[in-house]
Amino acid sequence: MSSLFNQEPGPQPPRDVRSPVEILSLLKNIQQHRDHLRVTFADRPQKFQSFIVQIDNATKTLWIDEMMPRDGDRFATAGEAFRVDAWHEGVHMRWHCPGVQRLMLDGVPTYCAPLPEEMVYHQKRGAFRAAVRRSMELSVHLGHSERNVALDGTLIDISATGCKARFSGDCTHQLPPGDLFERCSLELPESGRLNLSIEIRHAQYDSGSNETQVGLAFRQNQANVQRQIDRFVNYLQREARRLEKEDLF
């Protein structure tokens, strides 16, 4: 089954997401970043804008703001079905809404709809790769379930789909591309040690520094682990943007 938590780096074909955990994670990400929703009603050329204002997992409901332009409120109140499109950092997500109910939320008119049972997830560009300062000394452990291989190194950079790490000495013979290491861990600030599976993408030894740099891809990891990784990547991205702004002044 296709999963947004198990992807190759770079642009991807559209994926059908049906896992409630994955759908909830995507919707919460859209809400937290206040990403625009584009609403399109069937057989109507106009496009309308809204936002996610609340998600209630207990009742499986999604609340969106009033629409702009206001004609969209009239169509929604009449019970017309519509399509929702959202974009976040190179990912296009869309889903179908069979109709909404106009209700008041904290004294403000909103529209309540059931959480989508299916979404289309389309990563149109590669995942953002964030550099990790060497002073952070974030450890990476690689352990093989069948071969007697156990290596400890430090993180160089990280993205939502993989990372690069450095290991002391020449380890290339122990790290053939495509090999899956299922007993691995990654140390992240605040999250602590995350247990995960990692595939070797490439390994290159540098005799000058006497270290091996290894490209690693995350494979079939639990949703909570992926969320911790995504949170750390987003933090590094915000820090990088903040430093770039400071350099301008």
From TrEMBL:
Residues 123-233 form the PilZ domain. The keyword DNA-binding does not apply. It comes from the Bacteria. Gene3D superfamilies: Electron Transport, Fmn-binding Protein, Chain A (2.30.110.10), predicted glycosyltransferase like domains (2.40.10.220). Residues 17-120 form the Type III secretion system flagellar brake protein YcgR PilZN domain. The keyword Nucleotide-binding applies. Pfam families: PilZ, PilZN. Keywords: Bacterial flagellum, c-di-GMP, Nucleotide-binding. This is C-di-GMP-binding flagellar brake protein YcgR, contains PilZNR and PilZ domains.
